[in-house]
Structures are given as C-alpha cells and as structure tokens.
Amino acid sequence: MQPYTSFARVTPWLFALLLLAASALPAQADWFGRAPDVESVSLEEVQALMAEGAQKGDVVLVDVRSPEEIAVSIIPGAISVTEFEARLEQYREAKVITYCTIGVRSADYAEKLMEAGFEARNYEGSILDWVNAGLPVVTPAGEATRRVHVYSKQFSVPPPYEAVTR
C-alpha cells in the first residue's frame, strides 16, 4: 500500500471531523472562538482615542490581566477590571478599550462588554505592542518602571524593558 493511498482514505474523515468541530462554534466566531464583531484597534488608534477621551472624558482603558500581572506595570491611565466593574455605570456611555498581554484575553472581555451594551474595542497587540513601540509603563502607584509582566516565557520585551513572569 502506498502512503498516499491510506492518507486519501483518512482525509475525508479528517475533513468531516473539522467541519463538525467548526459547527460547534457560534456562527459568528472565528477558529479561536472569538467573535469577529469585536473591533481591534491599533496602537495609533489607542493613542488617538485616549487623547480624545482625555479632553472629553469618554474613553477608558481597561487592563484585563491578573492582579499579579498588573502589580508589575500597566499602561499609563489604565484601570483594572476590578476598578472598572466597581464603577460600571460611570462608564456606561464611554468607549472602552481593553488590553492584556497580546490581545486574546482582552478580546474575550471586550466581547462580553459588547454583549452587555458597552461600546468596547480590543487593543490587539496589547501591552507587548505598547512596549515594542518604546512607550512608558508605570506601576499601579504611577511610578515609571521598565518591568513588564509577559505572562509566559514565550514572550519577550525589547531593551531596556525587563520581562517578568512571576
């Protein structure tokens, strides 16, 4: 038996299995289960929205990372999910921009906010994109730092930043 002959027999079953798995996802979800209607914003868009929001007071940047990650550093002006959820009604009419390490967890949170009626966008690339652009990060107390929690050792930050995983 030739190797390709056995592959040809398996391929239709594999294809059927993939179709079955894909049908289990919500109709509007991509292969990672994220809804495509969550708008992603770039670094430049985040900066423009934050500048606009500073003038109008209608933009909030929400860090969805764990308390341990946030304890290392945050993007200046950001608040934690805990702070955001403690004042939900204050932000009901605001543009909410979510971020995490690379944008996956924040996309999920933005989707939940949208389902709850908020105008939410996801900063794709998140804090790693921010520091790769050489922008500042601060401690929760507002002090400048170069330490960035990278969630996993598979991620890195450029010099002069210091990657933290614990």
From TrEMBL:
Domain named Rhodanese: which ranges? 55-139
Keywords assigned: Signal, Transferase
Is Transferase among this UniProt entry's keywords?
yes
Q: Does the keyword Signal apply?
A: yes
* Signal peptide residue numbers: 1-29
A GO molecular function assigned to this protein is: thiosulfate-cyanide sulfurtransferase activity
InterPro entries under this entry?
Rhodanese-like_dom, Rhodanese-like_dom_sf
Lineage top rank: taxon: Bacteria
Pfam families in alphabetical order: Rhodanese
Q: What is this protein called?
A: Rhodanese-related sulfurtransferase
